[in-house]
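Entry type: protein chain
Record version: 2
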Amino acid sequence: MYNSKVLCVGEILFDCLADQLGKELNEVTSWTTYPGGAPANVACGLIKLGVPTAFIGCIGEDKPGDELVNLLKKIGVNITGIQCHPTAPTRQVYVTRSLTGERNFAGFGNIKTEEFADTKLEANQLKQSLFAQANYLVIGTLLLAYPQSRQGIFKAIELAKKHQLTILVDVNWRPVFWTNKEIAKPLILQVLREADFIKCSQEEAVWLFKTENPQKIAQQFPKIKGILITLGEKGCHYYLGTYQGSVAGFSVNVIDTTGAGDSFVAGFLAQCCHHETEILNNTEIAQKTIIYSNAVGALTTTKPGAIAAQPTKKEVEKLLKKRINN
């Protein structure tokens, strides 16, 4: 087994996407399931871009859990850090869609959010050997909503610091996951203080930091190396090292925006693995890194589902070439 350069810690689940656009939850008559969960999406996206990656999370001992693990295996993700819970089910999320394909997380069916297997991630079962070999840790914030998985996230950060991994935190604010929304902001900010890179959407930046200016956000975090603020089809604001800028998005035929932000993260980390500290020391490489990340995110919106839609390295290069030629 090769060493995984990147560890993605968090949830893996099935997104149940409404087949009918522009309908409320109770009006939807059929759903299509797609594998998802932000950290799992990032792991798969990285493998497709040629970066050895491991996923760490907790699933149920059930058919959906088996299907998700088999998918990760098929793609080539290192699954040795996955935990199984004997009674808690693998999570399914119901997602309604607007007429333009924008998503709304509508709930979890008849199961309470705190009863799913991903909330049972055990801190003391995290494999230190994975951290000893890796360079980057990716974490989302959804598992901070639950006491047990929260300890798992803090333990992952502790191990990452011990082994000197670079930490990227994706804010990924989803109120539907939190039974107590009052604790969300302080917990998320606590984790962000441990980050080297912070990625969030424009809306999340305004909610958390009262600004979408990446340099102003960076001033709130003394050890930060980079801030990435995604703007959907409009692209990204970024602050890397001492360089600040904005890069426009790619014009593509959007089918489904699920997982586009996660693919952006995969693209960014793939470039980090390739260029390493040059991203922070060279303004041209910083900008090219964001263009590449935007391209990976954009291509993911051209097909349904998050993981199934992720592009290969070759497809990304083709889109970049097309942009240069135009």
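Comment: The chain has one domain: 6-325.
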